[in-house]
Amino acid sequence: MRSFISGSAGSNRYALLAGAAAVALSLPGAAFAQDQELAEPDADEMPLETEEQDLGNVIVVTATKREQTLQETPISVSVTSGETLQQAQIRDVLDLQTVTPSLRVSQLQTSSASTFIIRGFGNGDNNFGIEPSVGVFIDGVFRSRSAAALSDLPNVQRIEVLNGPQSTLFGKNASAGVISVVTREPQFTFGGSVEAVYGNYNTFVLKGDVTGPITDTVAFSLDGSYQRRDGYAKIVNLDEDINDRNRWSTRAQLLFEPSPDLKIRAIADYSRIDEVCCQVGTLIAGPAAGAITALGGQFSPPSDFFEYESYLNQVPTNEVDNYGASIQADWNIGAFTLTSITAYRELENFFESDIDFASVDNSTEFRDQKVETFTQEFRLTSDFDGPLNFLLGGFYFDETISQESGLRNGTQIRDFFELLAGADPVAVLTGQPSLFNAVEAGLGLPQESIFGTALLSDERFGFDNTAWSVFGTIDFEPFDGLVFTVGGNYTDDKKDFELSQTSFDPLANINLVDAFIVGGIAQALAIPPSQVTPDVINGFATNPATAPFFAGIAAAAVDPAQNQLLALQPFQFIPPFLDVPNAVEDGKTRDDKFTYLLRAAYQISNEVNVYASYATGFKASSINLSRDSRPLNTDYIAGPRGSTILAPSSPIRDAGLAVPNLSTGSRFAGPEETEVYEVGLKAQWPGFGFNLALFDQTIEGFQSFAFTGTGFALRNAGKQSVKGFEFDATATPTDGLVLTFALTHLDPLYDDFPGSVLGDLTGQRPGGIPSWAIATSATYTHEWDSGTRLITRVDYNHESNTDINNGLPTYNAQLGNTEIFRREVNLVNGSMTLALNNGLEVGGYVRNLFNDQYILTVFDGVAQAGTVLGYPSQPRTYGGVVRFKF
């Protein structure tokens, strides 16, 4: 088999870069302060003491909802400044992971489907009913779906990535961590900037912002961006690009400061994405490849996985509209500050994709989703001179989701499955009556009806979620330098959902065991099958005179040698759906939980801080908003091969609700509960600083979401844990040169997961989590007497070789999970900017300089057993930048 392990040739080549930065220590909340040298404080960051500012690499953060220096912040937080984002050409959160080794971000199925992972925990990318384990907040407003957090990063001041549960600081629980984006406020001094970028693949980016005063107490800002890029992949047979960029965003702000004690900030924004996504290549071509070829279709061959060529029967559509408004008010009342953040947001997401990833016209999937979210947060913080201070907050969340989705049958889907079923190719290709025609005649179905409907399924889902929480912390400082913190959060979460689906294919609506039994009883009683009612079946099965005959018919019905209809079961892809709510399932989840934090922090000296903490976290139940939603096994137990007639007693069966081929799975997954022990050390001297965090983090009931080949399974893992450390350092060995180094080591484990789609994973290492992740950079600024600067930056991002996942439910299940795909990442990025003293800047950049190639992830071919598909990494990109600041 061809090896798809990304090359490690870069490892030695870039070892010098990795070793150039100094070492850093920090206990339970190490801060990954990349590029601190660039974080020159803004006007709103001035509460720093002069002595600290003179260090030259001090960053102010609000991770604890108070302004503190990074060294003083006793949690594990990495900070990326707006200037670093600008120099590194990081335009959205997808690229943020290259400077934050504890964070992973992936965009896979569509432009709107992304997963954020911190310390190996994360989910929620392809199902709007799943709460994210990593919360994304932009200017204090929770973005509940990843699609609402993907627009170009607007006028960013800094991005803080908080590792571990943050329930005592953020009203909306996030069991794995938080990404907090802080943008720049309007200024009372007129200014702004305009930027233009042109690069390979005809990349064109235009960004601009302007800010200034309206009156002495009112300031404004406007910013916007437009980004366009040709696709770096090609749909060969349609001569169309794929993986392009076509998005724009705009935002307006007003800042009211009627008095020194009152500040009100209003923000309104709108963004639009209209792109063709995403490139998929073939890694293993299974038996279905022959049927595709026989029908004149094409697919990307495994040998060309990184050639970025695909074959589809239609161009994918991805449209995302994301808009909203927020008002934040901060009122200082003596030693107290009262903060209110009110926000309303809407997200509209539509996509349609070819799901067989070949040029045959088999099937497409579409989803039309809308999300409406209202949030309200209140916080009261104190600033006493005495030993006691506190933060008290309340948070309200109200979200409504609607979704219409389905699968469309293509013109060749019937022929495709005829060939897979073993039909005569000549008969299929010449349109002669074939296998399915005989099946239709035998089952009394209309001719040409199997896979002959316009839609394979049509789905309508509704979801309402309301939650409220009370949260806060108390800091007690018995003497200078020693602070004890106690925090808590009580959350009450309610979800109500409605799921309905129509499955149109007539074959999928027939249970082949039950059909055999009905036919056998009809023959034994000499009556038409239509007269074999449930009462007739029950009487035949329980009558002592006929019970032995029923037992014989039932035994034959589940025996493939006697019931040849069973060979058709693999073609019953979308069986009938049991709508929710129903008499057994009420379509509701109700969760509440108290989580807490205990922490001690001690300032050993002006340069060194240490801390130790214990924290718990919580994430409420998630709902499986998909056609794969199935009753829990406590509500229904299917009979052999999905038989309803042979099914044992269960609430759904006894209520007469069972539909043909009903199986069990998950309507929802129960809550996640997090526990983390962490110790940390933070140190900062002139020209050098380091941080180290050591942690042991466990999630009980981790919500696992896995693709099974025709759908998705939502399951709770019993227990998943990770031990490791996070380390970062910054050094300025000489004027103008800044070196950074950040390292994350993770040792994850499925402590208890017997019910995964791959079987019992207990004791195994979860796939997709690298043992080692490195982010390091070197920035040199040469400044002339005139004030003109030449800024050169090189950064390197590495992820050690690791299994992409724990196997594939279809492909690897046949091989006993013996063939696992792996990946290793070695990315080198660079930029050079000439900043003139008149505000004009000219530069160039390159991302993935050495064109490192690796697999993002893999999945089973849709209804193509034995086929493995995957997403290739993005190739090298480069371009030039012109920027003017005024």
From TrEMBL:
GO annotation (BP), single: iron ion transport
Cellular component terms (Gene Ontology): cell outer membrane
SUPFAM superfamilies per the UniProt record, alphabetical: Porins
Origin: domain of life: Bacteria
Keyword Membrane attached: yes
Gene3D superfamilies: TonB-dependent receptor, beta-barrel domain (2.40.170.20)
Signal peptide feature range: 1-33
Start and end residues of each TonB-dependent receptor-like beta-barrel domain: 297-849
Topology in membrane: Multi-pass membrane protein
Pfam families: Plug, TonB_dep_Rec_b-barrel
Compartment(s) where it occurs, according to its Swiss-Prot or TrEMBL record: Cell outer membrane
Start and end residues of each TonB-dependent receptor plug domain: 70-178
Keywords: Cell outer membrane, Ion transport, Iron, Iron transport, Membrane, Receptor, Signal, TonB box, Transmembrane, Transmembrane beta strand, Transport
Family: Belongs to the TonB-dependent receptor family.
Protein name: TonB-dependent Receptor Plug Domain
Source organism: Altererythrobacter xiamenensis
